[in-house]
């Protein structure tokens, strides 16, 4: 896994693209061997911790979207190597233009065969973070064709305030889709090659299609924030919950420096 200690060059063009669009897809961030290794490790953790036992037809839209397992880095030394790796942290810091990044949390997002859409949303609605310098690495654990439901982006939509206050669900899918169409942002839907990883900001709108294959769509995600980011006064109950869950002990107006939020890299 030595590759994860090596830098991944981010060109000035890539930085400019990210700053304008608030997302970017980068090829060969992980080698095929690394993808295979972390597929095996993370799949085993998800299988061990998954408690979803309802049939697909009995679930709501959110529960149909994916199996969601959090903060595996705290339970698996192998997962920790990926989540806290120099490579991912350096890419995140370079794209955001900051010195260092901290972990907010990680989450495995496994979209089952036949799993439904992930509705339009902006992640940072959930986060009590006082900085817009937040970024999520979306790491597919296999090549991800269109029919498997790869992540989709509304390029540049971080400029839009409408929809930021919507929880992910049927309502956000409908209302945000209508508003983005009116504002004519480019809707980017592309497959992911093996080893390709995307990075997107906390305020850019994104979604994913249904998994129309007979295979699990396996993805690991890591949310990073500027290492100097502070806890803000929560604006909704989800942010209160996130404060208690992902940065316990952090104080409003102070840097989010808890044992669950180490500097990465």
Task: Report on this structure.
With 265 residues, the chain is of the alpha+beta class. It has a single domain, classed as q2cbj1_9rhob like domain (Jelly Rolls), CATH 2.60.120.620. The protein is 28% helix and 21% strand. The protein is built from 7 helices and 10 strands. The strands form 2 sheets. The protein has a 6-stranded antiparallel sheet with strand order 1-8-5-10-3-2. The longest helix has 18 residues. The mean pLDDT is 94.
**N to C succession of SSEs:** HEHHEHHEEEEHEEEEH
Q: How many strands, which pairing sense, and closed or not: the largest β-sheet? A: 6 strands, antiparallel
CATH top level assignment: Mainly Beta
- The CATH homologous superfamily: q2cbj1_9rhob like domain
Please identify the structural class as seen in this structure.
alpha+beta
CATH level 3 topology: Jelly Rolls
Task: Tag the structure with descriptive keywords.
265 residues, alpha+beta, Jelly Rolls, six-stranded antiparallel beta sheet, four-stranded antiparallel beta sheet, globular
Provide a quick synopsis of the model.
It holds the Pfam family PhyH. This protein is α+β, with helices and mostly antiparallel strands and 265 residues long. Helices cover 28% and strands 21% of the residues.
Secondary structure topology:
Layout: H1 12-21, E1 23-26, H2 32-49, H3 61-65, E2 67-70, H4 77-83, H5 86-96, E3 101-111, E4 118-121, E5 134-140, E6 151-154, H6 170-183, E7 187-189, E8 197-201, E9 206-208, E10 217-226, H7 237-246
Antiparallel strand pairs: 1-8, 2-3, 3-10, 4-9, 5-8, 5-10, 6-7, 6-9
Protein name: Ectoine hydroxylase-related dioxygenase, phytanoyl-CoA dioxygenase (PhyH) family
Pfam families: PhyH
GO molecular function: dioxygenase activity
